[in-house]
Amino acid sequence: MPGENLSRDEARERAALLSVDAYEVSLDVRSAVGEDTGDGPRTFRSVTTIRFRCNEPGASSFADLLAPSVTAVSLNGRDLDPSEVFDGSRILLEDLAADNELVVDAQCAYSRTGEGLHRFVDPEDGEVYLYTQYEPADSRRVFANFEQPDLKAPFRFEVRAPEDWTVWSNGVGERIEKVREALPQKGGGGRRAGGVWRFAETKPISTYITCVVAGPYHQVTDSYERVFEDGTRLEIPLGALCRKGLAKHFDAEDVFLVTKQGLDFFHDHFDHPYPFGKYDQAFVPEYNLGAMENPGMVTFREEYIFRGKVTQASYEARANVILHEMAHMWFGDLVTMEWWDDLWLKESFADFMGSFSLVGATRFTDGWITFANRRKAWAYRADQLPSTHPVTADIRDLQDAKLNFDGITYAKGASVLKQLVAYVGQDAFLEGARRYFKRHAYGNTRLGDLLAVLEETSGRDMGAWARSWLQTAGVNSLTPQVVLGADGRIEELAVVQEAAESYPELRPHRVAVGLYQRSQVGALERYARAETDVAGARTVVSELAGADAPDLVLVNDDDLTYCKIRFDETSLATLREHLGGLTDPLARALCWSALWNLTRDALLPARDFVGLVLRFAGRESDIGVLQMLHAWAESALVHYAAPQWRETGGRALAEGALAELRQAEPGSEHQLAWARFFATAASAPDDLELLKGLLDGTEEIAGLEVDQELRWAFLEPLAAHGVADEKVLAAELARDDTASGKRHQVRCLAARPSAAVKAGAWEQVVDSDALSNALVEATIAGFGQASQRELLAPYTPRYFEAIERVWTERSIQIGMDVVRGLFPALQDSPETLEATDAWLAAHEGAAPALRRLVLEARDDLARALRGQACDAAAGTSAG
Question: Are strands 233-242 and 212-215 parallel, antiparallel or unpaired?
């Protein structure tokens, strides 16, 4: 039998053969507490009973399980020899009957990588916390199953846990008894008291969205009630969980507020009551994702509980994630894609619905600005990588699936849906969703199933739209062409559409074209707008003929479509001088995004983009846009600026950030954003002394509260420049002796400018698996400091020597972290590009997912080198 990387063909064959009726899963996690023996992995007992049918009696198939050992296997009452039927990832099932019962008793391993059943020990109080994370295929690390989304079934879970713990799962749970019995698993030792928790049977769901959360979590409860037009009443128990150490920071009331607003919104628009009973939300430690849509038990990374002051952009981001996961209860959980090819059927819809409901139901009414500025930037980058793919992707196996949780599937897919709403109309779109839920509830679907209902409700041929938008890759560029008449008015305005040579599709776009002029007081305001359908290489916008000459033409005004916006010469000149005068925040965000795309495409020198940020970012009212500009400015300096200009640009950024910090309103979120940005830009002795003074209290900026999270933000540049040593960082950890503090300390330790430090960090991440996923992430983040290029140079050959071994030996999550995070992007030279090409040429047989990651990193490096050449040319011409 093949290994653990299940292929699409295997999944289809198994789905054609089998139907699953029910799962019963019993876990004993009492072994999670107590001392580790150090002899092999710490394990727990997992007993699974699967009842399933086979439509070809006598045929063979397999169940999935990733476990250190299997104690017993029984198929239809026949005891099978585990050594003969279990190969470490699959259980061979031969001579199947029409109706079957499989029982598997296994010893499964706790995870330290965030995959499967993750075990976390809180350094603050020694408490142990467990949670599961499975997508796309890690439930087989916890119980035997058929690990593919189209073999849905009802689940019943039973969990034995330490006596003082609470356990949660997808269904409503009840603690039914205490137990005291021997623990047979390794590390269990002796007899231990515990409690048995049993959970109500779920609706038919896929394996990857089952969930168990267990431990001494802090819980807050509430409830949601809804009375529908027919008089029926729906009551949903609500729960919110976090570690005890974070309870003092937990603003559960805001979580519940957004949750209730979202439930109201989706009930208003979906005409299908929430189908999964309760609605718990757990904020868990060392989480790899933002969140996961387990029905009835949503899990989130605990960083969404804010330990210090954050801007409204952080609260908006959390609300968006809460609503994104809630949308999945319908798009993904109630109706699930058949295979990962159609991952967009859940992720694109949830990403779109997150912003749609954010604006429609919560206080964050500027959510589409964030979407245009932040989410679409992710999509534009992903869609120009060599690994770009259609929204409906070709997913050959589970490794492909893991990597396809990307900017295409999420943000481009959501952008395409925003375009679809403009194309068919919001009413037709939502009516299509309602019919889709009713027609396919608790089932699995493909692309055609959704297109069919949209054709019904819109009356439009969805086939051509889908071929252009869902089944082709790449991003189009839209550029205005303006011809003025003798009277100074517009004689003709056209939109030119271009596509990359590798992806030449010219798509139909529903766009708004806005015309802007400067007023007498210097404001840049829209005075005319036309909405039109752009098709082909050139489209004339006849509605704008005769309008006054514009200072700025904004194609894709109001952000209706997915494209890269370009400017004519007059418009670009206007933005260079008057970008801060744009009064509409969405228009301003679109212009910033377009300028960043020009920089990444080596059409605008990086020093020019940095100059625009220094000149106009201080006037930016939207805090999320401002924080994005800070990130882009840093990236422009580190990756796209000519090396000989970096020092000059760095000083300019630090001076500009400090000036804005001192001028910002005391105590404002803008002041906080500029303080954080100043810390990332600080490198000069005076700047570092100021950071030290803000930490020890000898310096003060009116209104700036240096809380614990900001202290760590100031300490990282001090560590990276050799000002804060190991003793200082140890003292800070003593001040903040928490899980969060430990992650910050590890990052700062790895940031220090020492060859021995870098060697130690490399060994911990690449040559050892002792660190948890969160500490691997923190070490990698500290390791790669832009100010330490020479110190990091020896690791380029070591990287290429190590990555295939790491990919083979470590979990896919850690492999992804290492391959992406340690790529020598800071060694931005043709020689590094050549070394990357040499590795790719010598490893054509490497895992496709590994090659994809290296190809993506290579493309980013090549793009950076083109940007540096553009910037150097600008410096030469200026000189």
Answer: unpaired
Q: How far is CA 58 from the centre of its chain?
A: 44
Quick check: bond before 824 cis, omega within 30? Answer: no
In DSSP terms, 195 is beta-bridged to 161, 178
Which is nearest to 661 in space by CA: 618, 708, 716, 691? 618
Number of alpha helices (DSSP H) and beta strands (DSSP E) in the chain? 29, 28
At 143, phi and psi to the nearest 5?
-155, 155
3-class secondary structure, 594: helix
CA distance 399 to 136: 9
3-state SS assignment for residue 456: helix
The C-alpha atoms of residue 197 and residue 176 are separated, in whole angstroms, by 6
Place of tokens 């060859």: 755
Q: Which residues contact 699 (CB under 8 A, 6 or more apart)?
A: 690, 692, 693
What are phi and psi for residue 857, nearest 5 degrees? -65, -40
Dump pLDDT digits (tens) for 397-451.
Answer: 998 888 888 999 999 999 999 989 988 899 999 999 999 999 999 999 999 999 9
Nearest to 631 by CA among 649, 613, 608: 613
pTM of the model: 0.95
The b/e string for 62-80 (b: 16+ C-beta within 10 A; e otherwise) is bbbbbbebbeebebeeeeb
Whose CA is closest to 139, among 99, 97, 170? 170
Distances (CA, A) of 668 to 583, 672, 686: 21, 7, 24
Q: What is the pLDDT of residues 643-668, one digit of tens each?
A: 999 999 999 999 999 999 999 999 99
Residues with active-site annotation:
325
Tell me the DSSP string of 363-401: S-TTHHHHIIIIIHHHHHHHTTSTT---SS----BHHHH
